[in-house]
């Protein structure tokens, strides 16, 4: 089978995934910004893996789906993970807690939000890890161009977690607030409340693997989902090769079960 991987880079998890798929007898080509062209040549594959959620790769995914080629994850789920507004309502629709969000220009948010009793987090509307993320305690902290629409959410004070899941395997780590996936973490025991939440999330959207950023609120012990990811690097997984092999196997099984385009 010919497999195309849409990815920002050729190394890291993507490179290891290519080696795994090749070891199973498949032809694998990685498409980055350096070589990706959205035209009929791209369809010289049987199956695609959407590793990156950057918009150009999503556009390629739309082209692939419009030509009835299978891709994982779907562009719909990838976009809803990428766009923070879509992600917020994806979380709320499934019945999970998510911080209140506020949208508007800097002028509007300055005039209508209270800064004396609470803090906010500013995030890019299109998610990009921790880039462009910062705490807002006063209106001057908001970084914005004129008439730019800003996304703010309530800052939840409590313990911050990074949760990975690959099928039924779950690892949870304590992390610093606002830190990205690659920052130092501390592995913790998987408690029942965290395990139950991750399983519910995975099952709600039929996800094979992914990650969640969570906060257990200090005063209530309620758990909020503050960020979601459908294709992480699994930087802190105990054995990265095991993670790669498991993800690769799940993706192949997805293809065999859902596609008619089998060589």
Write a structural description:
With 263 residues, this protein is of the alpha+beta class. It contains 7 helices and 13 strands. Strands 11-10-9-12-13 form a 5-stranded antiparallel sheet. Helix 1 packs across helix 7 (240-258) and helix 3 (75-82) crosses helix 4 (84-93). The longest helix has 19 residues, at 240-258. The radius of gyration is 19 Å and the shape is globular. The N and C termini lie close together (6 Å).
Layout: helices, strands, pairs:
Elements (H helix, E strand, L loop, with lengths): L1 E5 L5 H12 L3 E5 L15 E4 L4 H12 L4 E2 L2 H8 L1 H10 L7 E4 L1 H7 L7 E4 L10 E3 L13 E5 L3 E9 L2 E7 L10 E2 L4 H13 L4 E9 L5 E7 L10 H19 L5
Helix pairs in contact: 1-7, 3-4
Main traits of this protein?
globular; 263 residues; 31% helix; single chain; five-stranded antiparallel beta sheet; Rossmann fold; alpha+beta; four-stranded parallel beta sheet; D-amino Acid Aminotransferase, Chain A, domain 1; 13 strands
Short précis:
By secondary structure, the chain is of the alpha+beta class. It has helices at 12-23, 55-66, 75-82, 84-93, 106-112, 192-204, 240-258, and strands at residues 2-6, 27-31, 47-50, 71-72, 101-104, 120-123, 134-136, 150-154, 158-166, 169-175, 186-187, 209-217, 223-229.
Instruction: Kindly give the count of domains.
Output: 3
Mean pLDDT: 94
CATH architecture of the largest domain: 2-Layer Sandwich
The major β-sheet equals: 5 strands, antiparallel
What oligomeric state best describes the polypeptide chains here? single chain
Structural class: alpha+beta
Strand order of the largest sheet: 11-10-9-12-13
The SSE order reads: EHEEHEHHEHEEEEEEHEEH
Helix content: 25-40%
Radius of gyration: 19 Å
Q: What low-confidence regions span 5 or more consecutive residues with pLDDT below 50?
A: none
CATH class of the largest domain: Alpha Beta
Number of DSSP helical runs: 7
> What is the strand content?
25-35%
CATH superfamily of the largest domain: ATP-grasp fold, B domain
Shape: globular
Topology, number of strands: 13
Look up the CATH topology of the largest domain.
Answer: D-amino Acid Aminotransferase, Chain A, domain 1
Cα(first) to Cα(last) distance is 6 Å
């Amino acid at each position: 089978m010919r497999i195309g991987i849409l990815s920002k880079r050729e190394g890291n998890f993507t490179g290891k995934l290519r080696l795994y798929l090749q070891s199973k007898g498949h032809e694998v080509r990685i498409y980055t910004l350096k070589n990706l062209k959205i035209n009929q040549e791209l369809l010289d594959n049987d199956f695609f893996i959407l590793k990156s959620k950057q918009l150009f790769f999503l556009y390629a995914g739309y082209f692939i789906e419009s030509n009835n080629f299978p891709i994982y994850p779907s562009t719909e789920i990838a976009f809803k993970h990428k766009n923070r507004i879509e992600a917020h309502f994806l979380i709320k629709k499934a019945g999970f807690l998510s911080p209140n969000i506020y949208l508007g220009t800097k002028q509007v948010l300055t005039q209508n939000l209270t800064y004396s009793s609470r803090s906010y987090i500013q995030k890019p509307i299109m998610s990009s890890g921790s880039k462009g993320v910062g705490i807002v305690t006063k209106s001057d902290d908001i970084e914005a161009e004129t008439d730019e629409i800003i996304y703010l959410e309530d800052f939840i004070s409590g313990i911050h977690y990074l949760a990975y899941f690959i099928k039924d395997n779950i690892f949870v780590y304590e992390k610093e607030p606002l830190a990205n996936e690659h920052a130092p973490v501390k592995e913790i025991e998987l408690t029942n409340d965290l395990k139950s939440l991750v399983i519910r999330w995975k099952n709600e959207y039929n996800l094979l693997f992914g990650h969640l950023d969570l906060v257990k609120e200090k005063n209530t012990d309620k758990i909020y989902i503050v960020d979601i990811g459908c294709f992480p690097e699994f930087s802190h997984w105990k054995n990265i090769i095991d993670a790669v092999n498991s993800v690769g196997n799940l993706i192949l099984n997805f293809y065999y079960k859902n596609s008619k385009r089998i060589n």
